[in-house]
Design brief:
Blueprint: H1 4-19, H2 24-48, H3 52-57, E1 65-67, E2 77-79, H4 82-94, E3 113-115, E4 118-121
Antiparallel strand pairs: 1-2, 3-4
């Protein structure tokens, strides 16, 4: 599923490549950054939509989801593998969040380092 935004990004990147204003590494970095931002958006959208299946699909099969309470030194909640996270999210949506509508907003994501083959570290 390509959004209009992604289509415009690709049109712009194509123009930059044709005009010689960007190297292939610049293009790869822009695409990688967009993919990361899209995953962040998908997480928020699926959480706020109370869609445990869509939420779980964002993660790899062996992913670990961890939550650290404020001030904690180690995670207070850990869910691994993806199915366990999916089941936990479904339970939350049907119990403690059943009467609530959440809204996640992510802005101003900063990429401190991007490796040659995609994201290396984000802090």
């Amino acid at each position: 599923m390509q959004s209009k935004f992604l289509q415009w990004i690709l049109v712009g990147l194509t123009f930059l490549l044709i005009s010689g204003c960007a190297t292939s590494m610049d293009t790869k970095q822009l695409i990688a950054k967009h993919q990361i931002l899209d995953l962040i958006s998908q997480y928020s959208y699926n959480w706020d939509s109370k869609n445990p299946d869509g939420l779980a699909e964002i993660f790899t099969e062996d992913a670990a989801w961890e939550w650290l309470p404020p001030g904690a030194q180690k995670p207070g909640v850990v869910h691994k593998p993806r199915k366990k996270f999916r089941d936990w999210a479904a339970d939350r949506f049907n119990t403690s969040l059943a009467d609530r509508q959440t809204r996640h907003y992510q802005t101003n994501t900063v990429f401190l380092e991007l490796g040659n083959d995609g994201p290396a570290r984000e802090q």
